[in-house]
Amino acid sequence: MKTAFLLSIVMMAGLFLMLYAGVGLIQEKKYFTSAPKELQDLIPEHIPERFHGAHVLGWILMILSMILLFGAAVFAGYDGVQNHFTFLQLFIRYLVMFFLLKVFDIVFFDLYLLCNSGFYPHFYPQVNGHTDMHLFGFNAESHIIQILACIPLSLLLAWICTLL
């Protein structure tokens, strides 16, 4: 179980890196479709680079974040296979990892970064005064779908690992 928690932390770091790369460095409006509609309306279509090379750095960090997320999932399976985990053990490992990642998303991204910190207004001053607690839960339906999707995804990954 320690491995599942450690890999969850790696995935959380990857997810945060992805958010930072998109929000702070790449800054293209098309990547904000998961943001609340009222914030999307405030963000301009074109945002100049914060500094020379910001977009390139953002894409490098985005790729690194995907490697962290994908790598943690692969390592979870590899380690499980090496330790002769059963299907159920692998399923529980993946389920724990994905559920912890989702809790991190809800608590840290939505509750803290979106509603209680100056993270978004720091990068987009035009949203200042529009990021508070009334936004929390704006994407509850999406979160519920993602939480439910963790179950078949965990089943699939556990099944793939048992085939190896």
Give a structural overview.
By secondary structure, the protein is mainly alpha-helical. The protein contains six helices and no strands. Helix 1 runs antiparallel to helix 3 (54-82), helix 3 (54-82) packs antiparallel against helix 4 and helix 3 packs across helix 6. The longest helix has 29 residues, at 54-82. The chain is elongated, with a radius of gyration of 18 Å.
Tally of alpha and pi helices: 6
Structural shape? elongated
- Alpha-carbon distance between the two ends: 21 Å
Average pLDDT works out at 87
Multimeric state of these chains?
Answer: single chain
Order of helices and strands: HHHHHH
Describe the sheet with the most strands: none
**DSSP helix fraction:** over 70%
Given as residue ranges, the uncertain stretches (5+ residues, pLDDT < 50) are none
Beta-strand share of residues: under 5%
Rg measurement, Å: 18 Å
Number of DSSP E strands? 0
* Main structural class: mainly alpha
Write the layout of secondary structure elements.
Blueprint: H1 2-26, H2 37-42, H3 54-82, H4 87-114, H5 119-123, H6 140-163
Helix pairs in contact: 1-3, 1-4, 3-4, 3-6, 4-6
